[in-house]
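Why does residue order matter? Because the sequence determines the fold. Keep that principle in mind as you read this record.
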Amino acid sequence: MHREPRVVAVIPARGGSKGLPGKNLAEVGGVPLVARAVRAAVAARSIDAVLVSTDDDDIAEVARAAGAGVVRRPAGLSGDTASSESALLHALHSVAAHTGVRPEVLAFVQATSPFIDPATLDRAVERVRGGGEDVVFSAVPTHVFLWRETRGGAGGVNHDASVRQRRQDREPEFAETGAFYVMRADDFERSGHRFFGRVGIERVRADHAIEIDDADDLARARLLATTADPLAGVGDPRHPIVDVDAVVTDFDGVHTDDTAWVDTLGRESVRVSRSDGAGVARLRAAGVPVLILSAEANPVVARRAEKLGVECLHGVDAKGEALAEWAEARGVDLDRIAYVGNDRNDLPALELVGWPVAVRDAVPDVLAAARHVLERRGGHGAVRELADLVLAAREQTLRERATRDAARDDATRDAARDDATHDHPHHVRAAAR
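Structure:
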């Protein structure tokens, strides 16, 4: 882990379930529910560590494969009567015991909500970290008229049955989805409950609000997965959502295989990948700034950067300082930068950025510091692989924006139809005939 786990996501996932046996391993969109929750939390930029609390070997194996750490839940906290809060407290204590760090923010994420959008999870974390709220939970707005059956007959719960208000005249209420609860960790430990202090609501889309309790819920989720899945195509841990505004790379061991040819005059030459060059070209075409930041003073570094048409700082010993200065000069937040390296001198830069990335053959310290390890080795298409991840994340952002805009337009049209229906009912009836 490249940074202290200040924001920790915990996913409680017991092996037993009476309502739907094996529920946490049931698949939606071909992915087990617990793996879906892990992928959503891993994709959230604000979360430093993702843990699954479980008593089940199969769940533990799936969780690790999806990119989570595992906290073994003791038998006393694994029964039907054990609360989620008890599992969360146990996980927090485990983090403190193993790292010496007490997390500042806890994100309680539930595997029974298969459609968690990492962006909404990030927004909830930032609201808590910003100090405005102590707890933020996921909910969906609703204008449903609720009724309760009594011996004297059914009666309205959230409305006066004798006054039929229009949808647009009623303030929305909110249905808790159960997908996530983000809270201040210390205050949660003191209260022992997920709701305390100032509570805020993070709105989620209605088609992301399904919670799986039984076989019917699971069947509906599987149908929705074809159209409403926020992780579709990008949830695989091999293909994370690298949502950044700039890419910075080392040179030797990243653009090259960390070897050099030396002729009889002592002149060095290196081997580079044309695939990497194509990846850099795609980043430039998309408007993503690229910097080569290298400790190597050999002019071959600058010549390669010139060929690629990107900025270059080489002969740099203090990579962290140089990166910070470059980012400030260009107005790019360090959290919005991906840096890919391979050796120990990359560590100061890796520790600064939101997306520290390592090539497959990096040294152990760099592999441990990386948020993502590429499948390819340095000089063999690693830069192209990172470029593809960055561009895929950009394409997803554009798709999500288009979906939100379409949903907003649909809501506007629905409201207009509601107005017409209530204001001119005889026109509607005439059209129906």
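The chain has a mean pLDDT of 86.
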